[in-house]
TrEMBL record:
This is DUF2254 domain-containing protein. Signal peptide: none annotated. The chain crosses the membrane at residues 12-37, 57-79, 100-121, 133-155. The keyword Membrane applies. Keywords: Membrane, Transmembrane, Transmembrane helix. Pfam families: DUF2254. It comes from Ruegeria pomeroyi (strain ATCC 700808 / DSM 15171 / DSS-3) (Silicibacter pomeroyi). It comes from the Bacteria.
Length: 416
């Protein structure tokens, strides 16, 4: 339950409006706080520091922050559209999670609300000379935050929506989910392989509504299975699209209360879009989108696709299970489908080799990257890399028109 709560909190904090609401609430609270601190200000200090100057400062803040916020929102939406059209529609997801942009916009909106509320309360009997001194001091703090945010914003705008920054963010988020899966395969549950038969008469847990399976809270399922003294077999994977009522999991017994069944449904986060948290295939497919978009006739940029290929070769090596990761799982009452190694290559190199079948530079880069993965991988990942290299070679030999290019690709292939 603790992990589920933390995951939900992280998702909420990544939303733009949540950060704006939090900063706005702090800003609105700071003005009454200045009135409460008025008793701590020595009498006569207002005349010496010119606390009456706070009125024009607040007016300037209100007008300037409104303009800066509007301009910043225009820049943000423009960057989103550019990334959508150039690097693929799903790169928009990573820009929506850009916490740096969210924090900066939240400071701008919070400063605007602080100035507006300060201007209003300054006209009330609440604020005397001593309270105005406290408000003046808080205004200086807000101005310092604005200056820092503007500097951060200028530095951030240099890369906002660019290929390099977008690719780096997708790579970082995907690497986190791959490392988590490598440390704890099946997220701490047993692997539900084809050899394991599902209980025929078990209680089926159906989806509450249609959508993508974003997360599976295995710890919550383990707790429910322990209470019911049974086992739970999860029949869907993170990233799957499910319909209302479709089977998500099943208990090995029918003696399950409706309360426990409802709790089991809540252990599956089902929404309208995929996320990076427990879904490394989503991040890999987004990187595949970026490479395939670069190879489209409208863009025709093989160098960009090769950059993605090189990054993917390092990223896929993170999928190799760590030593000791196959020991007894923590959630010993849960069975979960493992992530097949073949899917890692189907979402990446297979797609890129298909769309770049006629480009010798891309075909050579794919073979070079798969050779690098094969040299360091073991087990299922190694076999999947070799099969992907064979498929890519076949596509390249079919798509390349020149005999010299086909011969170069044959020499560079993984099997040579």
């Amino acid at each position: 339950m603790r992990d589920k709560f933390l995951n939900i909190a992280r998702r909420m904090l990544r939303l733009l409006y949540v950060r704006i609401i939090l900063i706005a609430a702090l800003s609105l609270m700071s003005v009454p706080l200045a009135a409460l601190l008025g008793d701590l200000i020595p009498p006569g200090l207002a005349d010496r520091i010119g606390a009456a100057a706070v009125d024009p400062i607040l007016a300037t803040l209100a007008t300037s922050m409104l303009a800066v916020t509007t301009f910043s929102l225009t820049v943000m939406t423009g960057a989103h559209r550019a990334a959508w059209s150039q690097w693929g529609p799903r790169t928009h997801v990573i820009l929506k999670d850009d916490t740096a942009t969210h924090s900066i916009l939240a400071v701008f909106v919070g400063a605007y609300l602080f100035a507006m509320s300060g201007m209003v309360l300054r006209r009330t009997p609440i604020f005397g000379e001593q309270e105005s001194v406290a408000l003046f001091a808080m205004t200086m703090v807000v101005i310092a935050l604005i200056v820092v945010s503007i500097i951060r914003w200028i530095a951030h705008l240099e890369d906002l929506g660019s290929f390099g920054e977008t690719l780096a963010q997708v790579e970082r988020r995907t690497a986190v989910s791959l490392r988590a899966l490598a440390r704890t395969p099946c997220y701490g549950a047993h692997a539900l392989t084809e050899e394991i038969a599902l209980p025929e008469n078990g209680q089926v847990i159906g989806a509450r509504g249609p959508g993508y399976v974003q997360q599976i809270f295995v710890e919550s399922l383990q707790q429910l299975a322990s209470q019911a003294e049974g086992r739970i077999y999860v029949t869907v994977s993170v990233g799957d699209y499910v319909q209302e009522g479709q089977e998500l999991a099943r208990f090995d017994t029918r003696e399950v209360s409706e309360e426990d069944a409802s709790a089991a449904r809540r252990a599956f986060a089902i929404e309208g879009a995929r996320t990076f948290v427990q879904d490394p295939l989503f991040g890999l497919s987004v990187m595949g989108d970026m490479a395939c978009r670069a190879l489209s006739p409208g863009i025709n940029d093989p160098a960009t696709a090769i950059t993605v290929i090189d990054r993917l070769s390092s990223l896929l090596l993170l999928a190799e299970p760590e030593r000791g990761a196959r020991d007894a799982p923590d959630c010993d009452r849960i069975w979960l489908r493992p992530l097949p190694a073949e899917a890692l290559f189907a979402e990446t190199f297979d797609r890129i080799a298909r769309d770049g079948a006629s480009v010798i530079e891309v075909q050579l880069a794919v073979q070079r990257a798969l050779a690098a993965v094969s040299a360091r991988a073991e087990g299922a990942l190694l076999q999947a890399a070799r099969r992907s290299a064979a498929r890519s070679l076949a596509r390249g030999l079919e798509g390349l028109s020149g005999a010299e290019d086909r011969e170069r690709l044959q020499r560079a292939s993984l099997g040579s």
